[in-house]
Write a structure and sequence with these properties.
3 domains; D-Maltodextrin-Binding Protein, domain 2; Arc Repressor Mutant, subunit A; 40% helix; transcription; five-stranded mixed β-sheet; 12 strands; transcription regulation; single chain; 298 residues
């Protein structure tokens, strides 16, 4: 098979644009060149083909019969080029998914695990919305949320995710041996943003532990539970904390639970707005369940 003998691509592009737009000026604008450059390209093509392709008129150009025969072939060819290139270079549109949770849950539970979500779902971009105020899921602020509480949540679908217990934790450097050792250490308090009668507190823990005479109102107070956790890790005192949030710290040995009892708290719930959630929300729910199950086995 002999090689194709074709005019330069630039002259063919100039011709196709001029024939389609019926104007050298508009063809020049489309191709980001000057009208003079278009005119030179067309003359070069006419010279190579030995054909007159345009009748030059005052305000426009008119393709000749030969040009009208050539134009649809080039038009279809360039359209086919454009489509093939678009298909080859197309990238699947990434989907974004936003989950809202409290500041402490985001920092202590979600952030350490988010890499595993991206490994499991590389085409989904997970965005973490950290706020201690519940967001309006119907307004689209987030696709789903993790909420701590008694439930139910009217107008939302809520699935229990993590059972919660609260117990004294501290740095191993404090060397606590028994509950009486609490009297010589600072109590760290995490204040509840929306406290209820059964919110875990040092007073409630002392009642369950049968410990009298401990000044449960003294100590350091934090409005953010993650700050109380960091203070406990630093050895500033003993904190009554969610064992869910400090599970990684307990496993790493930066915190210890020196003794019980553990107070039963409310669950963490996976909450979303749609009774028939989209595949992205279902993927998030499945991943969260798997992470909880993984933690339960450790």
């Amino acid at each position: 098979m002999s090689g194709r003998r074709l005019p330069p691509l630039g002259t063919l592009r100039a011709f196709e644009a001029a024939a389609r737009l019926r104007s050298f000026k508009r063809a020049a604008e489309e191709l980001s060149v000057t009208p003079t450059a278009i005119s030179h390209q067309i003359r070069a093509l006419e010279a190579q083909l030995g054909l007159r392709l345009f009748e030059r008129e005052t305000r426009r150009v008119r393709p000749t019969a030969e040009a009208e025969r050539l134009y649809p072939v080039l038009r279809d060819g360039f359209d086919a080029f454009a489509q093939a290139i678009a298909e080859l270079t197309a990238r699947p549109r990434r989907q974004a998914l936003t989950i809202s949770a409290t500041l402490s849950f985001t920092a202590k539970w979600l952030v350490p695990r988010v890499a595993s979500f991206h490994a499991a779902y590389p085409d989904l971009d997970l965005r973490l919305h950290a706020s201690d105020d519940p967001v309006d899921l119907h307004a689209g602020v987030a696709d789903a949320a993790i909420r701590y509480g008694r439930g139910p949540y009217p107008g939302l679908v809520a699935e229990p995710l993590i059972d919660n217990r609260f117990a004294p934790v501290c740095s191993p450097r404090l060397d606590l041996r028994g509950t009486d050792d609490l009297r010589r250490h600072t109590l760290l308090h995490s204040e509840w943003r929306h406290p209820t009668q059964d919110s875990p507190t040092w007073r409630g823990w002392c009642l369950q532990a049968g410990l009298d005479g401990l000044d449960v109102d003294a100590g350091l107070r934090f409005t953010d539970e993650s700050h109380a956790i960091q203070s406990a890790i630093a050895g500033h005192g003993v904190a009554l904390l969610s064992l869910t949030l400090v599970a990684d710290d307990l496993a790493a040995g930066t915190l210890v639970q020196p003794f019980g009892p553990a107070l039963q708290g409310h669950p963490h719930w996976f909450v979303h707005a749609d009774a028939n959630p989209n595949p992205q929300v279902r993927a998030l729910r499945d991943w969260l369940r798997a992470q909880v199950a993984l933690g339960a086995r450790d």
